[in-house]
Amino acid sequence: MAIPTPQTAVGKAALEAILARPEKAVLALDFDGTLAPIVPDPEQARADPGAAPALAALAPRLAAAAIITGRPAEVAVRYGGFDGVEGLEHLTVLGQYGAERWDARTGEVHSPGPHEGVTAARTELPALLERLGPWEGTWIEEKGGRAVAVHTRRTNDPDGILEALRQPLADLAAAHGLVVEPGRYVLELRPPGIDKGVALEAFLREKGAESVLYAGDDLGDLAAFATVTRLRKEGIPGLCVAAAGTAEAPPELAAAADLTVPGPAGVVALLASLAAAMR
Ligand SMILES: O=P(O)(O)OC[C@H]1O[C@H](O[C@H]2O[C@H](CO)[C@@H](O)[C@H](O)[C@H]2O)[C@H](O)[C@@H](O)[C@@H]1O
Q1: ipTM over 0.90
Q2: Looking at the whole model, is its pTM more than 0.95?
Q3: I need a surface site. Which of 17, 18, 67, 142 has the fewest CB within 10 A?
């Protein structure tokens, strides 16, 4: 099984570095849209059946592997089927954009706990949505008191309603010291101070990474791509992979990527091809 060729020179160099010294490479992956196919109901999302096996074949050959996701860490572990898998004994899941951490080694989640601005915004949300709409199909996702998300995918006008929500949700976030994290038919209100780029850099430093592969599919992954790009200047080769191939994939991500693969199935195939090459 051939490893796909990156379209950039820096991407090709990073792939060579990863293959030359896998034991010094770190793999970091987003969850929704990257390992788990996008589905209408966020509570029904599950990792591609090949994801955990492909990760388990690859992770033991690397310095470390992590999932970095907007999901609560515990939810990503459950929806991913990552717990108790042979080969994933050292997997780390960084949830809520890095605010939470689960380590397979201990099975414990460390979280800063509920945020009072999120609690206050959550209380005001139903009345705000009722005033603006009402829009049938709009769904509020609770994220353990650390964030609250408004989804429009299941409405009859996902793009239009998302646009109509942008400013009111930005105002609500600002009123409670929160930031808005935009995603695929979702606007999320969460505390500032952490993003996937910050989380990725801390993880790479912790593991002494000498190279990195990061794969993502959404706007929240751009911060991680930016970290990979910046660390190249420090001599850490990095490969940015976009899981794209659908009309809703943000063009900014594909533009910033060194390699584009077709969604979660393409990511799983990439992981499998890397594991095969390292055998
Ligand atoms: O960082 P990620 O792992 O990519 O998580 C980002 C958000 O993903 C989820 O929403 C997205 O996936 C849903 C299921 O496929 C889809 O219905 C929705 O339209 C997408 O935006 C999740 O619900 C959010 O909590 C995550 O922050």
Answers
A1: yes
A2: yes
A3: 142
